[in-house]
Amino acid sequence: MKQIKAIINPHRLTDVREALTTLGINGLTVTEVKGYGRQRGHKEIYRGTEYEVTFVPKIMLELVVLDEQLEEIITTISSSAHTGKLGDGKLFVSPVENAIRIRTGESGEAAL
User: Fold this and answer.
1) Strand (E) positions, 12-105?
2) Which residue, of 37, 39, 73, 103, is most buried by count of CB atoms within 10 Å of its CB?
3) How many Å apart are CA 95 and CA 67, to the nearest integer?
4) CA nearest 7: which of 57, 58, 79?
5) Right CATH number for 2-111 from 3.40.50.720, 3.30.160.140, 3.30.70.120, 3.30.365.10?
6) Residue 106 pLDDT greater than 90, yes or no
7) How far apart are CA 94 and CA 18, in angstroms?
């Protein structure tokens, strides 16, 4: 099993979620986060005063998938979140030792 953390633009969330649903992914955690990478934030004007926004709002998706599904899901997230502009986001993949469903006690792949 692998955990995927995807940091994407908030306006791409619906497209990514719908694409994952078509693959049969029915478990997903979404968190509103802020950060920056190469973008280094941006400048905005509010009431005539310019100020710098250092941390850009993003969405972080977290999901645990079977090893066999990994490449297809990475491709799906990447293509759904892609705009071709700076700040499209990043994907991180980590191994997962075990998963346990609290309600039933199922563990491993059965808990997904």
Assistant:
1) 29-35, 42-46, 49-53, 56-65, 89-95
2) 73
3) 9
4) 58
5) 3.30.70.120
6) yes
7) 23
Q: How far, in Å, CA of 19 to CA of 109, rounded?
A: 22
Mention every residue, 6+ apart, whose C-beta is less than 8 A from residue 57: 10, 32, 33, 34
Q: How far apart are CA 6 and CA 68, in angstroms?
A: 18
Q: What is the model's pLDDT at position 55?
A: 82
Q: 24: helix, coil or strand?
A: coil
* 99: confidence class by pLDDT, cuts 50, 70, 90: very high
Spatial distance between the Cα atoms of 63 and 80, rounded to a whole number of angstroms = 16
Tell me the CA end-to-end span of the chain in Å, nearest whole number. Answer: 9
